[in-house]
Amino acid sequence: MPGSSMTEPPGAEPPEPSRDSPSPRAWLTRNLLVLSFVSFLQDTASELLYPILPIFITVVLGAPAAVLGSIEGLADGISAMISPFAGRAADRIGRKPLITAGYGLAALGKLLIALATAWPTVLVARSVDRFGKGMRGSPRDALIADGVVAAQRGKAFGFHRAMDTSGAVVGPLIGLAAYEALDHRIRPLLWIAVIPAVLSVALVAIVRDPKRDRVKLQAREAAEAHHPAPTDPATLAPLPPAFRRVVAVLTAFSLVNFPDALLLLRLHSIGFSVAMTILAYATYNIVYATFSYPAGALSDRLSRSRIYAVGLAFFSLGYIGLGLTRSTALAWIILCAYGMFAACTDGVGKAWASSLVGPALQGRAQGIYQGFTGIAIVVAGVWAGLMWHGTGVVPLLISGAVAGSFALWLWVTPPDRIRVDTRFTPPGD
User: Fold this and answer.
1) Would you call 3 helix, strand, or coil by DSSP?
2) Is the per-residue pLDDT at 312 higher than 90?
3) What's the Cα-to-Cα distance from 34 to each of 40, 83, 92, 177, 193, rounded to whole Å?
4) Total number of domains constituting the chain
5) Residue-by-residue DSSP string for 245-295
6) Distance between CA atoms of residues 346 and 285, nearest Å
7) pTM above 0.85?
8) pLDDT digits over 376-420, tens only?
9) In the chain, helix, strand, coil percent, each to 5?
10) Confidence band for 1, pLDDT divided at 50, 70 and 90
11) Residue 134 belongs to what H/E stretch?
């Protein structure tokens, strides 16, 4: 049509012949399998610590509750701020060095926690751990996207999130079993968590990074020719408008998506014991892990925006439900429904972001997406914590209502919809 503007912006994902052209298993690459097991091991370690760390900091080390909030807020903020820089670096120097360093720092952080005798050491340890998370996340997800066509990335990221979250099921259950077996002693659990963390670092060694191989070859050729290594001009291209719109919308939603630690606090106020809270959290992660791959696969066939919208509808149901109920049985069911939110948004969001940019911008795109939404979640934790007032009913109801509005918005008006200029242009102009 004359006057139509259908030109792809610089950095956009190149068109593919057909969404059905790749072979059914082409998405299950070697790197995806290795990185999925790496994430499983690291998340097993992290989630073994997650339910017991508040008790360790406040009871064993004697820190006030305000210190616990400050440690977690600072750690999450560091992770979110590092992610965009790590993503840009991954596009220039390759993915594997940053992935290795990131998982190595996470393992070091867990070792420091096991050695801690005062809460400032835990503050340093958590900061090192989360620095590693920010360093590895976007390069890892860019490497996953590198080997998979855009039409199958929902499956790939869904599979990865399912494996990662399986660690979030295994970790708390190991922690609970060991806690009971070791006469309710916490410090031995901290040392147990170091084992899978170290194994995850060792496994990164067998990851293959074609981007890193190309960069090293260019550097060697440049050294032989006595001139600087060339910079790929594609890595300097601006991010496409559709990507920027999607990130803006998902970041805005993240301002009401406060950390799950506050949801566990709500369960405690409803009447959950420590053991019940750990089991409920494991149940939530079972739902999350079980449905991550199906949700990702559906997003490859249907609109990613609408699958994400379904996830936000479950978020709204979960927050409003937990805000209104006082029944432990009903709260357990609602928490399972809330697991569908993570299943429909975590991997799908990463696949959505990756499909809107070209191969040279994958690291930067993942870094910006994860960094901006991560910072917004930290902000959400601050305002929700200030409004918690013992029960958390008010912030839960506010966030649930806002999320419902975002779900409707994404379902009706996807932010990545191609905008076509339909104004009439006279022939010959």
Assistant:
1) coil
2) yes
3) 10, 21, 23, 28, 20
4) 1
5) HHHHHHHHHHTT---HHHHHHHHHHHT--HHHHHHHHHHHHHHHHHHHHHH
6) 13
7) no
8) 988 888 888 888 887 889 999 999 999 999 999 999 988 877 554
9) 75, 0, 25
10) very low
11) helix 119-146
H or E, element range at 309 = helix 304-324
Can you tell me which residue has the tokens 């039409």? Answer: 151
Residue 383 belongs to some domain of the structure: yes
Q: Which two tokens stand for residue 272?
A: 């959950």
Helix (H, G, I), strand (E, B) or coil at 73: helix
Give the C-alpha distances (Å, rounded to integers) separating 422 from 3, 7, 418: 7, 14, 12
Give one DSSP letter per residue of 182-251, joined into a string: TTT-SHHHHHHHHHHHHHHHHHHTT---HHHHHHHHHHHHHHHHTSPPPP-GGGGSPPPHHHHHHHHHHH
Q: What is the pLDDT of residue 8?
A: 43
pLDDT in tens, 116-155: 999 899 999 999 999 999 999 989 989 998 888 888 899 9
Count other Cβ atoms within 10 Å, centred on residue 274: 14
What is the identity of the amino acid at 211? Answer: K
pLDDT in tens, 337-387: 999 999 999 999 999 998 898 888 888 888 999 889 988 988 888 888 888
Sign of CA dihedral 15, 19, 25, 27: positive
- In 3D, which of 349, 353, 364 has the Cα closest to residue 95? 364
CATH code assigned at 405: 1.20.1250.20
CA distance 280 to 126: 24
Domain assignment present for 92 = yes
Which residues, including other chains, have CB under 8 Å from residue 38's CB and lie 6 or more apart? 103, 200, 203, 204, 207
CA 76/CA 111 separation, integer angstroms: 19
Q: Are 142 and 91 in contact (CB under 8 A)?
A: yes
The answer to whether position 334 is within a domain reads yes
φ and ψ at 402, to 5 degrees? -65, -40
Please count the other Cβ atoms lying within 10 Å of the Cβ belonging to residue 429.
6
Burial class for 66, CB neighbours closer than 10 Å (0-12, 13-18, 19+): exposed
Q: Is residue 157 part of a domain?
A: yes
Domain coverage including residue 150: 30-202+240-412
Single-letter code of the amino acid located at 332: W
Give the number of residues written for the chain. 429
